[in-house]
Design goal:
The chain contains 3 helices and 11 strands, in the order E-E-H-E-E-E-E-E-E-H-E-H-E-E. The protein has 225 residues and is of the alpha/beta class. The radius of gyration is 17 Å and the shape is globular.
Length: 225
């Protein structure tokens, strides 16, 4: 008798997939982003934190990811358009415990074509490692991971873990688990199909505008016991 075991090692990451099992992915590099400072709190080095969030993924050596900071201004709003923004939302629709949320639009093949990232303006944020606030760069890094197609990880130390606590600046650095996940989708040697994404996590899928499906995962705050 032969027994076949399918082992997924100790990795805890998942990727977002279409119903057909295609991994969601940003197909055309670079991934552009526009920081919108309208409505943002007065935090030191805020733009640097945003840049660092995107750069964390671009710096993964074995993944084909490029990012580009866009010049100009745009209104702070969610829209299926060519302007992909990061902004603070004061009229927060997702629930008090959600820190940030990325809304992405993808076609049926899994090509992500548009996104916007909202940050909950009613949450205390820090760019300097304050222990009484949530780390903005870590949270945005998490949301960029969603835009790139990653689902939440079960690894508690991963940036893609579903909850962040106050003062967790160390989540700015990608965990090995995050790196494995992004390599799976953007690596040079791995195919894009055959994704292992299984669980829905906290993603929700709403009504589709035309042929594009919005994907809306949120990052939740972790309450200390
Ligand atoms: Zn999330």
């Amino acid at each position: 008798m032969m027994t076949i075991l399918l082992v997924k090692t100790a990795l805890a990451w998942e990727v977002q997939t279409t119903d057909a099992g295609e991994a969601y992915h940003w197909a055309e590099m670079p991934l552009p982003y526009l920081w919108v400072d309208e409505g943002a709190p007065d935090l030191p080095a805020l733009e640097g934190a945003i840049d660092g969030s995107f750069a964390a993924w671009a710096e993964v050596s074995n993944a084909r990811i490029e990012v580009r900071s866009e010049e100009g201004t745009a209104p702070p709003r969610i829209a299926l358009d060519d302007i992909h923004t990061v902004f603070f939302e004061h009229d927060w629709p997702v629930g008090d415990e959600a820190l940030a949320v990325a809304t992405s639009w993808a076609d049926a093949s899994g090509n992500v074509v548009a996104y916007d990232i909202r940050v909950n303006a009613s949450i205390p944020w820090s760019t300097t490692g304050a222990q009484t606030a949530f780390d903005l760069q870590a949270a945005i890094t998490h949301e960029v991971g969603h835009v790139l197609g990653l689902e939440h990880s079960e690894a508690a130390d991963a940036t893609m873990y579903a909850s962040h606590a106050m003062g967790e600046t160390w989540r700015r650095e990608l965990h090995a688990d995050d790196r494995e996940a992004i390599h799976f989708v953007y690596g040079d040697t791995e195919p894009l199909d055959g994704a292992t994404g299984l669980g829905p996590g906290c993603s929700t899928t709403g009504a589709a505008p035309g042929w594009l499906l919005p994907i809306i995962p949120a990052l939740f705050l972790l309450k200390r016991r």
